[in-house]
Amino acid sequence: MDQQTDRRGRRETSVKSGELSPYRRFEREEWAHLRADMPMTLDEADLERLRGLNDPVSLEEVVKIYLPLSRLLSLYVEATQGLFRVTNSFLGGEGAKVPFVIGIAGSVAVGKSTTARILRALLSRWASSPKVDLVTTDGFLYPNAVLAREGLMRRKGFPESYDLPALLEFLAAIKAGKGAVTAPVYSHLVYDVVPGETVTIDRPDILILEGLNVLQTSKLPKNGQGLPFVSDFFDFSIYLDADDPLLRHWYVERFMRLRETAFRNPQSYFHRYAQLTDDEAVKTADDLWTNINLVNLHDSIRPTRPRADLVLIKGADHRIQSVDLRKL
Predict the structure, then answer these.
(1) Domains by residue range for the chain, with CATH
(2) Secondary structure letter of residue 203 according to DSSP
(3) Which of 30, 227, 294, 324 is the most buried (most CB within 10 A)?
(4) What is the residue-wise DSSP string for 74-87?
């Protein structure tokens, strides 16, 4: 901080924005040094299975970014387990062990799914061999029939398109240590929740929850009796970020690749796009990005970034250029 004098002679204090930030910024190479002795447990064949469409993450990226993150998470998990033990002792041994929950948020096309899968693979290969499960919030979207009836099909992915009570009930059961908790399943092929299909989560050591709006808040009621936020159930949260032009480029590029692959399946909800010319496809993708996904990003998703414990900031080619870690 430094002192300045205004035109009336009054002393004012100016503060640089960095001094007010709750985060510490690590550039790529600085973060990579924090790996220490965390072992590399993935090979190229593993990574090939974990990569998302149009997300060319490399083994170098895993070494420099995800291994230090894995080490950091191991410290958080160990500290949380220690806190559980002393709290359980305080309560006279009445507490039940609950999963360590990690939330991953960020825009469409930023690479959340790839990050979630890589972290799951790395965490599950710790020496302690923890059980790590991964759930996406897509399954908690309202079915298309409901969205269509409510006029929300072009708001799909916005906060109001999710069955928030069902998601909160799921997380509450997980954090209560209950076994065999079920979550609905979403199909990207048919672009809808699959009726009657569920995935069972049975007391994992770590649960990763990935979704656009997992850090979303709502207006607090004056009587203090509102529902909890999804992030209230998190032990650690991650936000993936990139500049708008990069996100738009990745979204359009992914759309064009899907047009040549998944969209050609007659069962695909987007099968009609497979017949578009290149120019028509780019125009369609740009419309979907600009009028739906970019609006959601600006209105609902990016405003939640300051609530994350850690922010991964991507540059070109999906390479993470810097990491912001919340100060303790």
Answers:
(1) 24-326 (3.40.50.300)
(2) -
(3) 324
(4) HHHHHHHHHHHHHH
pTM, 2 dp? 0.91
DSSP character string of 251-313:
HHHHHHHHHHTGGGSTT-TTGGGGG--HHHHHHHHHHHIIIIIHHHIIIIIGGGGGG-SEEEE
> Cα(224)–Cα(227) distance, rounded to whole angstroms?
9
pLDDT values of the chain reduced to their tens digit, one per residue, 328 residues: 444 444 444 444 444 555 688 999 999 999 999 999 899 999 999 999 998 777 889 999 999 999 999 999 999 999 998 998 898 888 887 667 789 999 999 999 999 999 999 999 999 999 989 999 999 999 999 999 999 999 999 999 999 999 999 999 999 999 998 999 999 999 999 999 999 999 999 999 999 999 999 999 877 677 777 778 999 999 999 999 999 999 999 999 999 999 999 999 999 999 999 999 999 999 999 999 999 999 999 999 999 999 999 999 999 989 999 999 999 8
Judge residue 187's burial from the number of C-beta atoms within 10 Å of its C-beta, 0-12 exposed, 13-18 middle, 19 or more buried: middle
Polymer length in residues for the chain: 328
Based on its alpha-carbon atoms, the radius of gyration of the chain, rounded to whole angstroms, reads 22
